[in-house]
Specification:
Chain lengths: 242, 242, 242, 242
């Protein structure tokens, strides 16, 4: 059965800026979706902010094994109740992949409990990502390091909880480093944060970025044999009182 | 310079139920505060929900190195803006100790990103807490294990992120186990969750509970030499462009 | 392609004591092997101490994706060079599952760097294992907790490094707790320690024990696309000197 | 009571090469010892390989709260029984600070269980170390990042277990990154690995390096109220059999 991937963006193609479309003709939304489309192991759907319920109805989420999130300038426009809905789904087992500027999205902040802030500049810096845990399933097939010709610089300190697994560290020619690939587990859900993906640069065409994001979707995919309630529950004694 | 400890409760002594006062004449608030009072290394203040701003004004928090939190039935009455204020203080470095039923408080859920739910029953079960990391400063002076004659049972699965350090595991005569003593780091702040402390049982009179909570306050105390801004910031290049 | 599992024991069936054979007619070696045999996803081989090179020749290890280790009274008889050989294989990517009294085997001590000691008694205690990370692949399909009618008690403090993932905690009727299911990653290899398996008790007939050990073999299986050298290596500059 | 620090090196000053003495007139041994000497909070002793028992007699270790280890070309000359002795002391609570090329020392490999290999070159590269956990006691007083004018490049993948806390990441002008400051806990002992310290470069004169190494000694110092046995022990039942 294919992994059901919902790719979300704050903008659909028609809403994307000219300078974005010059790089990604279907917008960032389309570029990320294309990494999964046309492969039998994935069933892909797209969703975006201007749709009803931000495109993330209960029906859509019920059918989503992994949600891929890219946002940047419109974090504050995502309704709080949608954020709560997504958070609850993650805690019940849905996977979440947060891309690039999604680091400071409401859903990332909610799940981390921290601000998820960082230092940054846009200067088309070369980034080189080193694989720290080569035997993790997300890094399967990825070389010891790979380069992105140009990325927005994201620098430490990245205000996240210590990741449950640190998979990659980025080097920037401008003199910074960054924990570029991080895994977290929250509730029954798996979360992967990945640094690349500035909207006017070409990282989503990099084959290692695509490979990592496909591996991540398989890793994070909801285990549909699991279900849970979120609240505390009364439990009878497992042993008789003496 | 003493560690400034603010002990918070949803109820002051006058608001506490008869059955609570029968065990703790000054309420749980007073019982916890008494663990720190009269010792030159701590400067103790109490605060509670029915005070203006829930007793947690910016001035109080500015002067707090560690906030100790006990709540149970009134989690939902704590104003969201106060929770946000406390969360921001923790991310900037204030320590937080969350006690017993505080596991499902808004501030715990905010900082963890999870529901923090568990299985429970009230049956005055014997609990035995085993020290998992004897060399952690919070466990300094604590024996390999100690017993609480009667506690509310809190059982797994406890819906928390994997702790940054797991210091203690509880055994209950009714057949359950629990990660009873857990450390987390979020932003610049240190957080300690500790299971004992049902309001009608006597755990706060246990000398090991007192020892652990004093050690925890020293461990979690804000480092006043640190300060931080919470948001992302523009960073000039550290190296010249080639 | 099936996962190649080598099940190792200090004793083959013919070398096993009467009281062991009374419970496991093929010895513990045969009982553990039977958990994998007859399933197309696994290719199973057995090996034991009295064979040449302790049954663990370079050829056997080269063809092993996961090594399952059970030892008890003969840890000291395993030649150091065989331990070194196995350790190097794990660091290069071979999976390792260490069972029960294997906690104090040379190979476990080598890979952990600690003594791996614990407190213990044999009193046929009931053990109840609680699943701490239900969404981990090793716990797929396992209920929230399950019981073993009788086990040797292994109690804390278990002298191991903090596990990379703590999957299960055991409760014993005699009053102890134990981190019964622990994951570690060392080099390119994955390691799983699992508490059950006293040689005269029936735990290897428990269906959840079997399920967990099969899941663990899949999780730990070597990624044959990875290869590595063990030593440090000279690396040319990735950037030109300014 | 001062923290008793034993600074160990494979060479004493008289044994050091000319090119080392040109930078550090008392050798690396003297340069590291000087970071602690003359401060009432530390009692400093030096020891080196050519002394009887490599300078690490049971008496010396019994009086050592933290052992600081620098070795490079003579790892193989350290007797195995001395390595075993040091390892046992660490597991019983002695702190250990491993510097620079000590990454591949026998004692580091023993305690980690891995090869501790890495990629390297000597090209007097600028290194910039970023603080990842500013609120950790080892980073107290250290700025957000600091520079070393010239260091030997140590690059990933560094073959270590995931650190219990990752405190610093290094950026090199030659295009690499490294987990430069790592904490580990093994047994009752605390271990800190720190990258700087090539023998012909000037890092031990850098004030942040000194500050970090003094903080690390305080953090790792043995808790003399703790004592332990290393082996497993029989434990009577804590509860009566039903």
């Amino acid at each position: 059965m294919p992994v059901s991937v919902t790719v979300w963006n704050e903008d659909c193609a028609a809403e994307s800026a000219e300078k974005v479309l010059a790089v990604y003709p279907q917008g960032v939304l389309g570029a990320v979706a294309a990494l999964y489309e046309g492969r039998p192991e994935f069933a892909v759907r797209t969703a975006w902010l201007s749709q009803p319920e931000a495109g993330l109805t209960e029906e859509v989420l019920e059918d989503t094994d992994v949600l891929v999130w890219w946002g940047h300038g419109k974090h504050h426009l995502v309704p709080d109740e949608i954020v709560t809905r997504v958070q609850r789904r993650v805690l019940r087992g849905m996977g979440l992949i947060v891309l690039h500027s999604g680091h400071e999205s409401k859903i990332m902040q909610r799940l981390m409990g921290t601000q998820c802030s960082l230092r940054w500049h846009e200067n088309k810096d070369k980034e080189r990502i080193f694989v720290i845990e080569p035997s993790h399933p997300i890094m399967r097939g990825v070389p010891a390091w790979f380069e992105l010709e140009a990325e927005e610089m994201y620098g430490e300190r990245f205000d996240i909880p210590a990741p449950d697994a640190l998979l990659g560290i980025g080097w920037y020619e401008s003199g910074d480093v960054f924990r570029s690939a991080c895994c977290f587990e929250r509730g029954y859900g798996k979360i992967f944060y990945f640094q690349p993906g500035h909207e006017t640069l070409r990282s989503y065409y990099n084959p290692n970025v695509g490979l990592i994001l496909r591996n991540a979707a398989r890793w994070a995919a909801r285990d549909r044999t699991l279900d849970r309630t979120l609240g505390s529950e009364f439990a009878p004694s497992l042993e008789e009182k003496r």
